[in-house]
Design brief:
The chain is globular, with a radius of gyration of 15 Å. It folds into two domains: 78 residues, Beta-grasp domain (Ubiquitin-like (UB roll), Roll), CATH 3.10.20.30; 66 residues, [2Fe-2S]-binding domain (DNA polymerase, domain 1). The chain has a five-stranded mixed beta sheet with strand order 2-1-5-3-4, with helices on both faces. A hairpin with a 2-residue loop joins strand 1 and strand 2. Helix 2 packs across helix 5. The protein has 158 residues and is of the alpha+beta class.
Length: 158
């Protein structure tokens, strides 16, 4: 199996790792780096549980090769915490009960973060469109939309 060096910025820190050329980004994050917040849900790009940000835009890590993000800025849900404090989105999901089982929450938070960076004051329709690639089987989405609105009112995601 061929390996090459992957260089990128991960949650604000530069990294270089020897990575198999065919390794998926989710496997790189979970197995090489040890960041397990990004979840594997469907293994096919359909549920959004694996959503991360690449250069501020949501991306499904289960269908992205790790080397496809070489030289880019990659952010995971672990990077949303600053000095041990939850981001506005994390706090919103907690306070507005936007997560039930929590499995989809990291992907929802990262997709919401990407949305709020592009649109700091989204409407309900904007939030629905921004999260349309993320599936939650527990909440019914009302509380998730409230959580995103709460984060926007607090000044954004981060």
């Amino acid at each position: 199996m061929a390996k090459s060096i992957l260089s990128l910025s991960l949650n604000g820190t530069s990294r270089e790792d020897a990575v198999a050329d065919n390794m998926l980004l989710i496997d790189y994050l979970r197995e090489v780096v040890g960041l397990t917040g990004t979840k594997m849900g469907c293994d096919g790009g359909e549920c959004g549980a694996c959503t991360v940000l690449v250069d501020d835009r949501p991306r499904l890590s289960c269908i992205t090769l790790a080397h496809a993000v070489a030289g880019r800025r990659l952010e995971t849900v672990e990077g949303a915490v600053t000095d041990g404090r939850m981001s506005h989105l994390q706090r919103g999901f907690h306070e507005k009960l936007g997560s039930q089982c929590g499995y989809c929450t990291p992907g929802m938070i990262m997709a919401s973060e990407g949305l709020l960076r592009a649109n700091p004051n989204p409407s309900d329709e904007d939030i629905r469109a921004g999260l349309s690639g993320n599936i939650c089987r527990c909440t019914g989405y009302v509380k998730i939309i409230e959580a995103v609105h709460d984060a926007a009112a607090q000044g954004g995601g981060s």
